[in-house]
Specification:
By secondary structure, this protein is mainly α. The protein has helices spanning about 1-25, 35-55, 65-80, 90-95, 100-115, 125-155. The longest helix is centred in the last third of the chain and has 32 residues, at about 125-155.
């Protein structure tokens, strides 16, 4: 839990820099308000942090996830629907896309920032992120319990 809080704080600062400072510095057009950005960023970061904690249970060495990150990042970008239309994806991949926090997070951000949507219009994405966070965290705790139980029986 402490590790998750540390990641959350770190990525809140990084996310604020990437989503506020960089667009301002390069004079990018932004339609999203700071309040809407924060309303989306909080559940997005909680969901991403709990997802990362869950995935970390599958790796023994710290550097191994970076190999998988390089392989899966482009796939996950396509699954968000940002660079490849959702309607052109097979239904199977549309369902798989919703297992990752990037899908509702990116879709909500695009609608808020590029289409000028109100936060109420993307509230279903925020609920998906919150539900994902609860499920990921529950699975993480269950996984930690199973690992501790396995280690205890191995002794």
């Amino acid at each position: 839990c402490r590790k998750g809080i540390a990641y959350y704080i770190l990525y809140t600062l990084l996310g604020g820099y990437l989503l506020v400072v960089v667009p301002w510095f390069f004079n990018f057009s932004q339609m999203i308000s700071v309040g809407s950005l924060l309303t989306l960023m909080v559940p997005m970061l909680i969901s991403m942090t709990t997802f990362a904690m869950l995935i970390s249970l599958f790796f023994r060495r710290r550097e191994t996830p970076f190999i998988y990150l390089a392989f899966t990042s482009v796939i996950l970008l396509f699954l968000t629907g940002a660079s490849w239309p959702e309607q052109a994806m097979p239904v199977f991949w549309q369902w798989i896309a919703w297992l990752f926090p990037s899908t509702p997070g990116v879709r909500a951000f695009i609608q808020l920032n590029a289409m000028g949507a109100e936060i109420s219009f993307v509230s279903h994405y925020i609920w998906v992120l919150l539900i994902q966070a609860v499920v990921y965290y529950a699975l993480f705790l269950w996984g930690k319990y199973l690992i501790a139980k396995k280690q205890k029986t191995a002794l």
